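COMPLEX REQUEST
Ligand: tryptophan
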Amino acid sequence: MSSPIDNRPVILTGDRTTGPLHLGHYVGSLKNRVALQQSHRQFLLLADMQALTDNARDPDRIRRNVLEVAFDYLAVGIDPLATTICVQSALPALAELTVLYLNFVTVGRLERNPTIKTEIQLRGFERDIPAGFLCYPVAQAADITAFKATIVPVGEDQAPLIEQTNEIVRRLNRQVGRDVLPEAEAMIPTVGRLPGVDGKAKMSKSQGNAIPLSASPDDIRQAVRVMYTDPDHLRAADPGKVEGNVVFTYLDAFAEDKDFVEDLKAHYRRGGLGDMVVKRHLEDSLQALLAPIRERRARYAADPGYVLDVLRQGTATAKERTEATFAELRAALGLFTFT
Ligand code: TRP
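STATUS: Structure written out below.
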């Protein structure tokens, strides 16, 4: 894949390894990563260090999920020959860059970061904010710049982190008097966030409203059975609402035949179409989408040695690249390098 001169734009993105990935990740990011992996030089970071910033009491879970997320990547079609998959905690240059960058950010700026403010509230940290958590945007700036990524596909909630990254980049570049680091651009998905099966705004494992990529045929059937529809649509004969009806939101996201979905919507609005029938169509689409993913995932899970090799090789490639960036910065700042 890598030719002597690789002019492809560089992508870095990743996931905290807090749990296996679900359909929301598939729609919002995984699908996009598979689509971009040939036209871009793509790095995927298994962000176990960042996961520890709010899970320091549970390192076992974070470690276990490094492999679970790697299974998910491979199962959806991330090709390790095209995309470099690497483990954050095994890349010391990321920690070194973080410490350097901390000098180019103020505590006040960190406290005002909108992403962090919301997340502190969600986690109920209030006064007892782990310092590592407050500073994770700086670590994320280290991740992005260490790879010299110019494109960072992330959810809308993460956009302030890219802004903060670029502030650090501009300060460092000003400090050394030339553009050692490139600025990065957030690539926000154009499709809306997939709601949970209960109709809540976000699909999330901790809310218990997610369909994991490893869901069994029975899990899928059950998730669709309890899925939120139009609470006022009591009889099939009545007209029903499509807006806010999760079954239709999912059909829009997953059904192959868009014309067929439009016909279903029209029929539902008119009345005469029961929830059960619509749900059966959705279940068929989801079973068809997830069956091959589940089978591939099971094959990787049965061969963790192979997957560990993928991570070992990807991490070695990433180590070289990130250490080169840190060496370049050290030289630019006039710090020592012993050879
Ligand atoms: N913050 C991202 C998340 O919560 C994970 C992540 C870590 C990341 N480092 C990154 C994303 C660098 C993009 C670029 O999922």
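REMARKS: DSSP finds 14 helices and five strands in the chain. Residues 304-333 form the longest helix (30 residues).
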